[in-house]
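*** Residues and shapes ***
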Amino acid sequence: ETLEITHGFTTWFEVGGYLFSSAAPDQSWRFVGSHIRPRVRAPESWNWPVGASLSMEVAYQNRDFSSDTWSVELRPIIDKHLGPWYVSLNPTLERSLRGDNAAVGFAFSPNVALERDVSSIVNLGVEYYGGLGPVRAFVPRAEQDHQLFGVVNLDLSPEWEFNAGVGFGLTAVSEHRMLKLILGRRIGP
């Protein structure tokens, strides 16, 4: 389970903080780690043909959950609304700062979303998450992580965000079946 709190300081700058926990069978809740994520975006007044933003996460993970305790992620986000369609591309670079993979350098993790409004409330989509390995030499396909999710987004009100999905791993090293749920509440103006 993840608790995320994000605060927008301007229309183009926000900072998010995450606390991760875990509850495995026959175990109590445990602290997994935390992230901090500043994000900037191109202001709408620039009239770019696509949305563009850049976030950077600095992360700590408990050694019980990850062999890499400190890491950084650079996530450019390029997106576009085309009528009822929405497409997003996140060519993410990740790097371990401390741990078993610190000497590996940056790894490439492409993420793509394609969604369509089917009503004023319901949006359906497909999300892809990948892990290709180090930028300097991608790992063989059998060792890459490729996941595909079918998702539903509900626009229940301006205050609430709902996203749920069923995912499938496409390679042997990927988790084979996953469920995800995001429930968000906007607070303030």
